[in-house]
Write a structure and sequence with these properties.
heterodimer; A: mainly alpha; Rna Polymerase Sigma Factor, Chain: A; Arc Repressor Mutant, subunit A; 2 domains; 8 helices; about 65% helix; B: mainly alpha; 5 helices; about 70% helix
């Protein structure tokens, strides 16, 4: 069943339509809510509210092909509402994460940790480091990275979901990736230091 | 360490090129950069280990994000199931 048929099934209140909707989008919206809210209680509220509002308003959706984008827009707006009491949004400056030496046009030594760990424990620790780095990103940058890199949405879809321009999506994505790379570099640096300490 | 193909450039030119490449490296890695920009990136890469390592670790960061579909948390399944049931009741749908 494609999104168009699913949408029609929901409008027609066909048996199984809600379950199919949840099966297709529930887990992804939950993952997005958890990572965007950084707080399980808030994430639970955001997820429930997103499912509820989205399901009730699906009949008004004019373009069935845009269902996924529209669902993430509802989720993103719910997350923003939840965070509205936060202090002013933090910005990421490229200067903070530039490679060493770029002011002189001569990069100095950069550790290469691009090969993934070959053991399960190493992979699990790396994933934890990723989650920590993700949680440290400002929410507006985190949402862009989640939509583009984790959920695999296009720049255009992400721009529509977040109601910002495509150039803003590209700028935030790049800065979020650089900040996350910086966090992972620090993690690998610490790993290397720990390995040098005699037992 | 200056890549061979950048040896003839002034410090200002190298700085400007380096900045441009770093600022747009995501476009290059996503395959959405323009052809002449890709050529400049390739020029930067010639013999420049730090830049290669920087590019490769940024690419590894992106790949890790693509692989990490699910957030960590032992109780997330319970929260998920509970939430779906709450919404089901509020919508008054029982079509399982």
């Amino acid at each position: 069943m494609d999104d168009e048929k699913l949408l029609q099934a929901i409008i027609d209140e066909e048996p199984g339509a809600f379950d199919e909707f949840v099966r297709r989008y529930g887990r992804r919206l939950m993952a997005f809510s958890v990572r965007t809210c950084s707080n399980i209680d808030n994430a639970e509220d955001v997820f429930q509210d997103t499912l509820l509002k989205a399901y009730q308003a699906l009949g008004d959706l004019r373009e069935p092909k845009a269902l996924r984008t529209w669902l993430y827009r509802v989720a993103a707006n719910n997350c923003r509402m939840m965070r509205r009491k936060d202090r002013a949004p933090r910005q990421i400056s490229l200067e903070d994460y530039k490679p060493p030496g770029w002011e002189d046009g001569e990069l100095i030594e950069v550790a290469d940790w691009s090969d993934p760990p070959d053991d399960a424990a190493g992979r699990s620790e790396l994933k934890q480091a990723f989650e920590h780095g993700l949680a440290e990103l400002p929410a507006e940058y985190r949402m862009v990275l989640l939509m583009r890199d984790v959920e695999g949405m296009s720049t255009k879809e992400t721009a529509e979901a977040l109601e910002i321009g495509e150039s803003a999506v590209k700028m935030r994505l790049h800065r979020a990736r650089m900040a996350l790379r910086h966090h992972l570099a620090q993690y690998h640096e610490q790993l290397a230091e720990d390995a040098e300490v005699p037992a | 360490m200056t890549p061979d193909r950048l040896q003839g450039l002034t410090r200002e030119e190298r700085t400007s090129l380096c900045r441009e490449v770093v600022e747009q490296l995501s476009d290059y890695l996503d395959g959405s950069a323009q052809e002449d920009f890709c050529r400049r990136v390739e020029a930067m890469l010639q013999g420049c280990q730090p830049f290669e390592a920087y590019r490769d670790t940024l690419a590894a960061t992106i790949e890790l994000a693509r692989r990490c579909k699910e957030p960590a948390g032992d109780d997330l399944d319970d929260v998920y199931e509970r939430s779906v049931e709450i919404v089901r009741k509020r919508l008054q749908v029982d079509d399982r």
